Amino acid sequence: MADDELDAIRRQRMAELQAKHGDASNNQQQGEEAKQRETDMRNSILAQVLDQSARARLNNLALVKPEKAKAVENYLIQMARFGKLGAKISESGLIEILEKVSQQTDKKTTVTFNRRKVMDSDDEDDY
What we know:
May function in the process of apoptosis. By secondary structure, the chain is an all-alpha fold. The chain folds into 2 domains: 1-47; 49-105, PDCD5, DNA-binding domain (Helicase, Ruva Protein, domain 3, Orthogonal Bundle). It contains 4 helices and no strands. The protein has helices spanning 2-49, 52-64, 66-81, 91-104. It starts with a helix and ends in a 23-residue tail after the last helix. 6% of the residues are buried.
């Protein structure tokens, strides 16, 4: 009788583990689908907002500087959602937007030198 109870417990535990593992893969699959939907939505909005040459320039920028391209895409999507864009943005309009974003994210680089003193005044007394 103990063997029957042990088998029942094992089967129940195995079913729980399989259900838990199945849920984890389902959650991962749902997350991937949500990312795909978001990407598709972003692409459709950008296709409506940008003309061909501007879209090509933005894609080229994404290859070189993905962070800056993402910032510009977010800016364009936000403007489109609030209705601040009247017509499709041309390549020259995109260049102006890129310049604005570059000015906002412009970082100052400073270099400081810490030089080690080879001959210290205290060392001269030792000779």
